[in-house]
Amino acid sequence: MGQKRCLFLLAIFACLLSFSCGSRVLKLKSDDGRPVYNHTLAITLVEYTSAVYMSDLSELFTWTCERCNGLTKGFEVIEIIVDVEHCLQAYVGVAKDLNAIIIAFRGTQEHSIQNWVSDLFWKQLDLNYPDMPDAMVHHGFYSAYHNTTVRPAVLGAVKRAKKSYGASLNIMVTGHSMGAAMASFCALDLVVNEGEENVQVMTFGQPRVGNAAFASYYSLLVPNTFRIIHDHDIVPHLPPYYHLFPQKTYHHFPTEVWVTNLSILNIVLFGVEKVCDNTGEDPTCSRSVMGTSISDHLTYFGVELMGETWRQCNIVMGREMESYSRKDSKGNIFLSRTVPSMEVIETKIPSKARISSL
């Protein structure tokens, strides 16, 4: 009885800290006027991020996939983009309950996460970011968004969504792993090049994407950004941060939200969320531990962030999607909805055509 009482008191004490516990939302108002982290929005966007990993484009387009429910129910997809050449996938749609356009980017799929992580140990800053003196970014992440079919398709879908649903819609950009890096470049693109103002970013397990100069520019232009990191997730620690060379090393932009598992006697009680400082590299948050866990990278708030397989870029699409789909000369696939949908698309067709399996 004494042990149970002790566990209960410890749990209550933890919840009185300046974190959020379980499904409760505690007061997280910033004293310096920074945007406020919203736990409920985080657990909603992680579901949107999980859905972008689905390979069945028919179910994803009609929002009937096994991950297309819960807090995302009622979402309407405007565009699905599958860059077959680079094994990239993203979607754009409208969440009426959030009064927002949702843009979600899929993380690494073609190769195993272990190989991708090892690559990041030696990647160097090698690209000057346009119109931002001294800012340098990771070439691979930058190119994945800017130099593929993804960017024009995403921007076109955002314009169509605003035309159909109203120009006052907010824009929420999310993604996981490499998809999180692409999400940050997309958000910056929307603000700098498209003149969008109400752009919010919330990512999961994001790697570092640029140097300190880039992080500074980014935080000024896209201040409503939260990077959520799960406990010992290895990817946010990459590429490495070298504190002895602060201007040359890769550097996270703010604001980090570090989610740790509070456990007593090897029993996980709940996740604890800490909103970190405005430096992007708070030494009391995820940098205070070794980032060694791949399993922490693949699960956020109990939601799986990975596809059906890490070895192949499988894409499946039913024949009922033919009227919505098109291909470009390189075989990249686009599913588009031009106006708000009132029709019900029949998806229960037993035969499905495998469009691509890389």
Automatic annotation (TrEMBL):
Domain Fungal lipase-type: 102-241
InterPro entries referenced in this protein's UniProt entry, alphabetically: AB_hydrolase_fold, Fungal_lipase-type, Sec_MonoDiacylglyc_Lipase
Organism: Camelina sativa (False flax)
Coiled coil: none
Cleaved signal peptide residues: 1-22
UniProt protein name: Lipase-like isoform X2
Matches recorded under CDD domains: Lipase_3 (cd00519)
Keyword Membrane: no
Keywords, ordered alphabetically: Hydrolase, Signal
Gene3D superfamilies: alpha/beta hydrolase
